[in-house]
Amino acid sequence: MIKPSYLKEGDKVAIIATARKVSADEIQPAITFFESYGLSVVTGTNLFASKNQYAGTDEQRAEDLQWALDDQNIKAIIIARGGYGTVRLVDLVDFTAFKKYPKWMVGYSDVTVLHNVIHQLGIATLHATMPLNFDKSKAATESMMDALFGKLTQIETEENYSNVSGIAKGQLVGGNLSLIYSLSGTPYDLDTKNKILFIEDLDEYLYHIDRMMMQLKLSGKLKNLKGLVIGGMTDMKDNAIPFGKLPEEIILDAVKEYKYPVCFDFPAGHIDENSAIYFGREVELNVEDDKGILKFLD
């Protein structure tokens, strides 16, 4: 796995939008924030374009993504926000220059599409907060910057007695459960064999969480894991007739026959204090009833 160079003062970072639209007022605080770390910020030509809910047309968003992928002087690509739309771009861009001159791809939620695509290229990425959310948590932005500057070494969780104890090592992969599910059967389907899978989600019905976990199980993605890490399962919904299980129970039911550690309440995903995590890097997962520790090894 190729690890892009960590940032240093004076490096150039790009902010682009691959999904929903953003305004200049929403992005300016992020520009100021990055500049406070001595970074030079450039923005996509179409960053503030608008087409219905999107940040411009597919072609405009793809143009900005291609520019950021190709420019050798850009050392990190910061996706402005999530929503929906990144999956519409992946067949419109060429990753040839990016493979030759890798850089950090940064974001979460809808950016899971890019995490999965880039993982297939053998390049590490950064699952972290995005500019639209910078005002929600100082801890989240500091975690992102620690990761970008190479200072993030491990993350510890709070207690959760649904945890399945154990120790495992492997590459960390994953992202938003709904996006992983949506890429199944495509060229960008996630290979989870002998890896540690991270999942999180937002605003989903409990039965749909069960449906997605069953898809992962039936497709073999859960069978050969080394470990499972669950981030925020935020604002879950239920039907008038209750589904009858909490997210923890749904997940445990899907993996109950397997013998690997399972860590709940990991501080990443659609939560305010969204800790940064590296995808593609080798990690050690140590899970106990009262805590979990994810340590980055390489």
Topology as a string of helices (H) and strands (E)? EHEHEHEHEHEEHEHEHEEEE
How many extended strands?
Answer: 13
Arrangement of strands in the largest sheet: 6-13-12-7-8-9-10
Q: Structural class of the helix and strand makeup?
A: alpha/beta
- The geometry reads as globular
- The count of helical stretches stands at 8
Described by strand count, sense and barrel closure, the largest sheet is: 7 strands, mixed
Question: Ranges with pLDDT <50 over ≥5 residues?
Answer: none
Task: Describe this structure as you would to a colleague.
- The chain has 298 residues and is an alpha/beta fold.
- It folds into two domains: 12-148, Rossmann fold (3-Layer(aba) Sandwich), CATH 3.40.50; 154-296, Glucose Oxidase, domain 1.
- The chain has helices at residues 24-36, 58-70, 96-100, 112-120, 138-148, 177-182, 206-218, 247-255, and strands at residues 12-16, 40-43, 74-79, 104-107, 125-127, 154-156, 166-176, 195-202, 227-234, 262-263, 277-279, 282-288, 291-296.
- The strands form two sheets. The protein has a seven-stranded mixed beta sheet.
- The mean pLDDT is 97.
